[in-house]
Amino acid sequence: MPDLTTTAPAVRRPGRLVIIGGVLAAIVASSIIEAAVAAIARGAGASDDFMPLHASAFVFFTVLGLSFGAIGWIIVRRRSGDPESLLRKLVPAVLAISFIPDLALLVSDYSPHANAVGVVALLVMHVVVAAVGVFAFHKVLPPGTSEK
45 — alpha (psi -120 to 50), left (phi > 0) or beta? Predict the structure, then answer.
């Protein structure tokens, strides 16, 4: 009878199509929710001329954010001895750092159409993208085990 206590479980490496599908699903889901956030923000007083609330802007940045997020997630998953613990710290830190440019809009003259409602909507959009991305990445790239 074989000794099953010394056999380590195999780490499943998802295929590229699975990963790409997960990222694309996250992009679509995030963009739909962000469109709703933008519409609510405009209804609550954000300027129609505030470009970050236009789909052409937020979808572009969503694609960038989720693509780079997936790359970072893959790197952490492959290189860390405890990827789940590291991601629990890294994701909120990156999210907080991502707020800086949006908060800067409130104190700069860079975007004359920025107001508190528009900036809060952008911050909510960042949280939406992070939450949807983490959900999708957990499904297609579970962080529980390292691929070392």
Answer: left
**What is the separation, in whole angstroms, between the first and last Cα of the chain?**
29
User: Cβ distance 133 to 69 under 8 Å?
Assistant: yes
In this structure, the number of other CB atoms found within 10 A of the CB of residue 90 comes to: 15
CB count within 10 Å of CB 141 equals 21
Residue at token pair 């990156």: 94
Residue type for position 55:
A
Q: What is the pLDDT of residues 31-49, one digit of tens each?
A: 999 999 999 999 999 999 9
DSSP class of residue 1? -
Task: Give domain limits for the chain.
Answer: 15-140
Going 121 to 127 to 128 to 130, the CA torsion angle's sign is: positive
pTM to 2 decimal places? 0.85
What's the chain's length in residues?
A: 148
